[in-house]
Structures are given as C-alpha cells and as structure tokens.
From TrEMBL:
Name of the featured protein: HTH-type transcriptional regulator LutR
Keywords linked to the UniProt accession: DNA-binding, Transcription, Transcription regulation
Species this protein is from: Microbacterium azadirachtae
Record's keyword annotation contains Transcription: yes
Classification via PROSITE patterns: HTH_GNTR (PS50949)
Organism placement in taxonomy: Bacteria, Bacillati, Actinomycetota, Actinomycetes, Micrococcales
Record gene name: lutR_1
GO molecular function: DNA binding; DNA-binding transcription factor activity
Keyword Transcription regulation: yes
Stretch forming the signal peptide: none
CDD domains: WHTH_GntR (cd07377)
Domain annotation HTH gntR-type: ranges: 8-76
InterPro entries assigned: GntR_C, TF_FadR/GntR_C, Tscrpt_reg_HTH_GntR, WH-like_DNA-bd_sf, WH_DNA-bd_sf
Amino acid sequence: MGPSVQRSSMADQTADVLLDRIRGEEWVLGARLPGETTLAAQLGVGRSTVREAIRQLAGRGVLSARQGAGVFVTALDVREDWDAVLQRADIVSVIEARAAIEGDAAALAAERRSPDDLRAIRRALRHRAEHRSHLEEHVDADLAFHRAIVVAAANPILTELFDGFTPRLRQTMIAMLRIRASFGDDEDHEAHVRLADAIRSGDAAAASRLSRSHLASLKDGLR
C-alpha cells in the first residue's frame, strides 16, 4: 500500500511542476512537450510517474496525448474546480443575459449617442486594443468598452442593470476565456470596431445585430 501511495504522491507533485511550467509559458499553446524520457530526467522521476502526471493533466484539459505524435499543450491553466458542464451552462446563461441588455442598448446608443459618448466609446476601444495579452486586464477593458455603449443608450435603468451584473459578468467571462485558452485576436477586435462604427454612424439595426452576433459567437465557442 505504501509504495503505491508514494507513487501517486510523486505523480501529483510532478503534475504540479509541469502545470507551473505551462502556466509560466515555457511551452506555448499547441506546443509539443519533450518525450517521457527527457521529462523524467529533467524532473528526477521515473517514466511511469511522468506518464501518470501527463494523464492527470490530460484529464484536466491542459494536455492532449495524440497517438504517434506526442503530448501537446491544449490549455495554459486548469479549469476551475467546479463541474465543467455546470460552468458552461452558467456561462451560456450570462451570455444570453448580456445579449438581452446589450443588444437593445447598442440600438439605443446608435440613436441617442452624444459627442461625449462617442469619444468615450473610442477611448474604450483604444484601451481594449492595448490590453489583449493579459486575461483579466483584457476582460476589464472589454467590459469598459461595452459599458460605454450601455451608457450611450441614455437609459439609466439599463446602466444600472449592467453595473449590477458586472461582478458576475466579469467572473464568468474570465472563466469562459480560461476554458477557450485564447482571447483578444484580430477577428475579435475587428468585431468591436464594427460595432463602434455602427453606433457612430447611427445605424441602430446594424449595432443591435453586431452586438448580438458577437455574443452568439461566444456562446457557439463553448460547444
């Protein structure tokens, strides 16, 4: 009994070390890990311990073993401890609530935006463009952009709803992006530029459609 417990403990520790190296971006997303023999020598453990550690991290969504090809990094961190299925369901609910608030707010913003509102949206868009590498800073910059649009709708109830929703929204968007392990790419940013342009040009129908389609794409990305 003792040796098996010890082996299990070593595998847990080895998994933790590998996870720390992945979090430290020693290997980028999609990178192939060194072979078991190399890792075993680096970590001072046996190949069977490395194999078990890799199996653990594969089960947590961080690594993927491909037959004949090797082991690859599929996420830069583990998911949160709560059940992934429930987490996805929670994220879907939040995205649907965002669409209900932000879709109408975008249309109203296109109709009612003031010069000050447009300046605030442009500033928030620039700030968002500058914060596309760090997850939590990116989420904060993204939420500030969407809030600027809600404010431009000139409906204090919508702003109050959005602000009351923000703590839950922030937590959920961070969790979602951790699951996806990617964020802030050029296509995503261009979608936000198009939304801002529709509001600036006063096209309420396009602003609502662009807002809802962006959120629908986030929802589809969870499937």
